Amino acid sequence: KITAQLLKCRTGEFDLESILFLTLRGLGTSDLGCIGDCLNIERLDISDNNITNLTPLSSLKLLIVLNASCNRITNLDALSSCENLQSLNVAGNLLSSFDSLRGLTPLKKLENIRLKNCIGNFTNPVCISSAYRSTMLDMFPNIKVLDGERVSGRGSDLFKLCKDIDNSLKGLYNNGPLREIPSAKPWVEKGYWDLKPNQNIIIEEAYKQFNDILQECKELRGRANDALAQAEKSLSVENVKAKFIF
């Protein structure tokens, strides 16, 4: 049973009305006790317990987010007075009919309802109905998210598109085995994706070629200087010999 002492110990608050956020997940409790005295609570997690009765929550007028998944809840009438409730998770309970959800219809701010969670395989008997989705949308015309799927507002078109694609693919399989798909052919010419030298590589190559040419010029200049020096030396020797001829 949830007691005032337990609530104070878990939150560190001395006054129950000072509690704004509360997590009582996985305690194995079946009795919410005095939780209704937390009048200012806004976010409450009572998931993974053995709770069957939500009546103590009827006094929580400021409650915005409630996670009551994985319990043994059969009726949501007690939440009809939680006028600020916006998000509700009751996946993994025992809600067997749409009548058990009628208590939520007065909640005009309720935008997010989760009755099943495919990832964790948590659901409710009411979700088995073939008219589940359409009935939920009729009962709660203001909701934007149902079971994690955005059904109205921004992003809903994407979910609808994905659903249409899934239905189309199912239709292909229902019409018998798929015909053999031809092998893929390249749609660009060979070498299209090969890496091409970038501008830096081109500049480096040009710089290297320039240095090679410059080096050759220096070598040619050196050879020319040597040839000139050799020619001058030869001419000076000839002049000396001519002086000794009579």
From TrEMBL:
<dbReference type="InterPro" id="IPR001611">
    <property type="entry name" value="Leu-rich_rpt"/>
</dbReference>
<feature type="coiled-coil region">
    <location>
        <begin position="203"/>
        <end position="234"/>
    </location>
</feature>
<dbReference type="GO" id="GO:0036158">
    <property type="term" value="P:outer dynein arm assembly"/>
</dbReference>
<keyword id="KW-0433">Leucine-rich repeat</keyword>
<dbReference type="Pfam" id="PF14580">
    <property type="entry name" value="LRR_9"/>
</dbReference>
<keyword id="KW-0175">Coiled coil</keyword>
<dbReference type="InterPro" id="IPR032675">
    <property type="entry name" value="LRR_dom_sf"/>
</dbReference>
<keyword id="KW-0677">Repeat</keyword>
<protein>
    <submittedName>
        <fullName>Leucine rich repeat containing 61</fullName>
    </submittedName>
</protein>
<dbReference type="GO" id="GO:0005737">
    <property type="term" value="C:cytoplasm"/>
</dbReference>
